[in-house]
Amino acid sequence: MSNHVYKTIELTGSSTESIEDAIQRAVGKAAGTVRNLRWFEVTDTRGHIENGRVAHWQVTLKIGFTLDD
Predict the structure, then answer these.
(1) Radius of gyration for the alpha carbons in the chain, expressed in angstroms and rounded
(2) Strand locations in the chain, DSSP E?
(3) What is the pLDDT of residue 4?
(4) Residue 68 — very low, low, confident or very high, per pLDDT cuts 50/70/90?
(5) Structural contact between residues 20 and 42, judged by C-beta atoms closer than 8 angstroms
(6) How distant, in Å, are the alpha carbons of 4, 12, 22, 23, 40 from that of 1?
(7) Which residues sit opposite 56 in a β-bridge?
């Protein structure tokens, strides 16, 4: 394993389906524009309630990626 320098970005994914789907949406969007994604950390989870039911999830992530040499 070589030595790496990492940078992090913070994103919030949202979904009407699930927490996992919100995470996948955020990671997928980042993968479209950022190279060398390596890890993520969930820092916050929120939801929106309508008519006594969960209607929407929001999950904030820190996503780490390695910088090019």
Answers:
(1) 14
(2) 6-15, 37-50, 53-66
(3) 82
(4) confident
(5) no
(6) 9, 30, 31, 27, 19
(7) 48
As a whole number of angstroms, the distance between CA 30 and CA 42 comes to 15
Residue that the structure tokens 């789907």 belong to: 21
Encode pLDDT of 12-57 as tens digits: 999 999 999 999 999 999 999 999 999 999 999 999 999 999 999 9
Q: The tokens of 10 are what? A: 């913070």
Q: Look-up: residue for tokens 């999830």?
A: 57
- Return the pLDDT at 26: 97
Question: Among residues 29, 36, 38, 37, which one has the least CA distance to residue 11?
Answer: 29
- Dihedral, CA of residue 22, residue 23, residue 29 and residue 34, to nearest 10: 160
Q: Give the three-class secondary structure for 9.
A: strand
